[in-house]
Amino acid sequence: MAEVKHEITAECLSIGDELLIGQTVNTNAGWLGGELGLIGIRPVRTRVIGDDKNEIIEALRTCVADVVLITGGLGPTKDDITKHTLCEFFNTRLVRHPEIEKGIVDMFVRMGRDPGDMLEVNRAQADLPESCTVVPNSRGTASGMWFDRDGRVIVSMPGVPYEMKGIMQEHVLPMLQTRFAPPVIIHRTMLTAGLGESHLAQRIERWENGLDELDIKLAYLPSPGMVKLRLSAYANTNAAEARLRVDQQAEALYELIPELIFAEGDVSLEQAIGQLLKEKEQTLALAESCTGGYLSHLVTSVPGSSAYYIGGVVSYANAVKMEELGIPSDMLELNGAVSQPVVERMAVGVREALRSDWAIATTGIAGPDGGTPEKPVGTVWLAVAGPEGVVSKLGNFPGTRDLVIERASMSALNLLRKQLIGKG
């Protein structure tokens, strides 16, 4: 019988010295928090712990949430101590699971390796606490472990993100839903581009102020070049009614900022643009200077992009701008490479050279050097050339070199999107 509670809470324990010293970035905790929220379980705390038995035991003793998710410390090396520590904490012992050992051997065979070359430390990964429920790992050799004690569930998983995500999605999330029957939570996420978080909040302030009385929560989730707006409502008794409330407010948001919303869910800006180009049966070419090919990377990261992406020119040097894009030398001398006339000519030039329907061009100063008082680091000119002419935009993007490149690329994609939908 599932245990029904109004709110189920969770804690995440990330184990590994490499996390504490910054050698590895702890991406697992953020991903886990997002996945738990989608099934109505509220994360309340995340902790990073070194490879120390006493520290792990103390952390487990002080956990207060209904669900404790442990990542890391599982594997064939000596510093992988989690399962030994769990045996001590739960007063149990390790036992070998023949079916798990066979799965490890089979994985070695699939990798083209001779099972006879397997070390005992590899086979020992089939040694798991006797009192746990084994959670299969289809992506690796370290199994997950599920403990259910005194109304609390503790799950230990490998720290490798690819393996951990597989265990969570294939087994742990469904098991948690069955075990706790958390309240259904309705989400709807709109993806926006063109306004930063603070300006966006100001634009929709009146609409946002009315959400509280509808028992709807709004979360701002910013990233370079875009802001996600996630609407959430608990459906303790009537999921259909909660869905209706969320849908009505989403539609109100569409009416308020139609030019800013480009998709919903997990769609990227480059995916949304690819879909628009496919629908219009049109093509795209790129001329990049300061973005150095990053824009091309984004476009080609979308499966099926060959249907609309022709190619591009990375014209870092002025000589390439002149020879490949047809920019007159006197235009460069008079205006400089980072200028409106040059970026517009880059867009027109690559569109003509590659015979595409649309073209994007970027030229700017990504830094950390090269800025001037007139054109500081972060100054980027963007242009889009299309069937009806060329439009351009001056951007001033703060941050490191990588951030300038990323933000400029996203802004350039959004400039194209607005032309495609007639909102430019």
Largest sheet, order of strands side by side?
A: 2-1-3-8-7-6
Q: What is the level-2 CATH architecture name of the largest domain?
A: 3-Layer(aba) Sandwich
Structural class: alpha/beta
State the end-to-end distance: 57 Å
**Total domains, how many?**
3
How would you describe the overall organization of this protein?
The protein has three domains: 8-180, MoaB/Mog-like domain (Molybdenum Cofactor Biosythetic Enzyme, Chain A), CATH 3.40.980; 189-264, Alpha-Beta Plaits; 269-420, Alpha-Beta Complex (Maf protein). The radius of gyration is 27 Å and the shape is globular. The strands form four sheets. It has a six-stranded mixed sheet with strand order 2-1-3-8-7-6, with helices on both faces. It has a five-stranded mixed sheet with strand order 14-13-15-16-17, with helices on both faces. It has a four-stranded antiparallel sheet with strand order 10-11-9-12, covered by helices on one side. The protein is α/β, with parallel strands linked by helices. The chain contains 16 helices and 17 strands. It has helices spanning 17-20, 28-38, 53-62, 82-89, 98-110, 120-123, 161-180, 197-203, 205-209, 239-256, 269-280, 294-300, 318-325, 329-335, 340-354, 401-420, and strands at residues 8-15, 41-49, 67-71, 94-96, 127-129, 133-135, 144-149, 152-157, 184-192, 217-223, 226-235, 261-264, 284-288, 309-314, 358-364, 379-386, 389-396.
